[in-house]
Amino acid sequence: MNISISGRLFLFTGIVLLCCSACYSSAVFPDGESAYLPYAPDGIPFVVADSAWAADMLGNYRAVVSVSSHNGNAVVAVLPWRRSDLNPERKRIVVYNAATGLPVRNVKIYHVSAEKGVVVFQPQEHNETYYIYYLPYVMRRGYGSGRGDSRPWEDYLPASGNNNLSEEKSDMPVSLTSDKAHIPAEIADTRWLASLPADPETLEKVSLLRFESRIRFDFPTPMGLIATRVETKDFLAQHPENPILFTEDRAYPIRLADRIPVRWIEKGASETFEGSAMRNEYYVWQIGVWSPREETADVRLTFSDLVGEKGSIAASEITCFNQEGINWDGAPIDFRIDVEKGRVQALWCGVQIPETAHPGKYRGQITFTADGIRERIIDVTIHVQNEIIQDKGEGDLWRHARLAWLNSTIGIDDEPVAPYRAMEVDKEMIRATDKTVLLQSNGLPKAITVNGREILEKPFRFVVETQQGCVTFDASGAVREKMAGGLAVWNTSSRQEGIRFECEGRMEFDGYIRYRMRVSSSETVDVKDIRLCCDYTPRASEYFIGIGYEKYKGGFRPTHYRWDWKGPWDSFWTGGVEAGLHTEFLGGSYHGPL
Q1: pLDDT digit string (tens) for 81-97?
Q2: Cβ neighbours of residue 548 under 8 Å, at least 6 residues apart?
Q3: So what's the pLDDT on residue 160?
Q4: Which of 31, 140, 168, 524 could cysteine-pair with 145, CB 3.0–4.6 Å?
């Protein structure tokens, strides 16, 4: 049985002011905004939209086109969208009039590939702007919609017919400014389709103004836009080696696994890396390994010291998270890296820059080896700035400094970690930060307070019901001991009416309590029921979630609720705003969420 005590948690975000008082390189290094700046590989910029549109039935991406003149029947839009999604030809494309917010009925798709799309539609007026949405999907409502849901995970609207519009019956569409934009029920007029030429190139072309992402989170960045087949073929002709290596700043995370981004076509392969870090920062960068011709087996990176004019950073402080680290139990762990033919593997490297490091350039080398290839040397230069960053960069997600947490050993031992304080054991009383547990003589909780608020109306009872009646676990002489600053343990046992009860308990500094209860008998006992009785105060039982109640949603505590283990469900939480109690039963093999 697990018991987890929860209270109100306040997270304070500090403000770190960084002053640019010194610079040791004229180079301009990427930052958290770099990957989100407008990017135009074909002269057409990809940007984040000025305002977000309703995603349901429209998706997160659109092309913005302008119609200046036409013959009243049809225009063509050629869209070099450089998509990385699978099977783009299976996904619907819809066109909307930007001025009216209404969909265009007559649409025909001539060509769809990952590289580009050719869309023909009948404009409604001259000098108007149109939106072409090319990844529309059905919005899932609520966090539970992905669990126990009969719908497939493929939520993109499927292509259907010549115009990719749904033939399902629905109401007339509403404007794009509403909460839900509907795909029109009508399909393209057959007479209009018959009037179209076989070659769309003969039609008047629209002006492609830009590609837009709905919000910043959806922006593909230059690392998410694919290189075309022609660009890739030409690039390979210039690079006969296998694998081909690329170095990349942490501000441009490698996103594609089965092709290379257009950024690498423009930037080129590289076996040198140069970056900029603050003192005390956990600095991260990437090495991209592309194996276009054959598998690259057993990739290994070996690091040298980073040497500056007035000091150095030891190689032991540098790691590649893909090949080594610290396991969950604190033990070192190694990984084998194989890059399949045609695949791209991002190797994330990191180094702790000492707070005492002298500002300046630090140079070193990374030795790249793999089966059957010559040794490759990657030169690394890190410009250490004069500024000190207080949180190692963990507060700025674009720095990816939190990768260091993968190798953290915090919490492995039994000592408390900030902001928790050391525990106190005083006879039957155990105190942790803002939490107090008073134990009964049998070792079960008699009272629990969180933030000074009482959780229990009555003490816990562990009851075995036999044919002769109920036997409630009773014992005395429980031994309580503080094993460390973050751990207290106790145990007790008794024999009652032929039944032996054993109780082992342990409480950790964050309020986690784990019980191991054993019930046994040397003789035959006809048992009707075994139960744990917990009575909560009204203030600590206003809300309830778990064991299948309201199918994952929870809500106000019911007056009565009965459940079985078929969910499978094994835990519940009940509480109020300031305090509550999460209880989990671990007697079976299943261990899952609420």
Answers
A1: 999 999 999 999 999 99
A2: 563, 567, 569
A3: 67
A4: 140
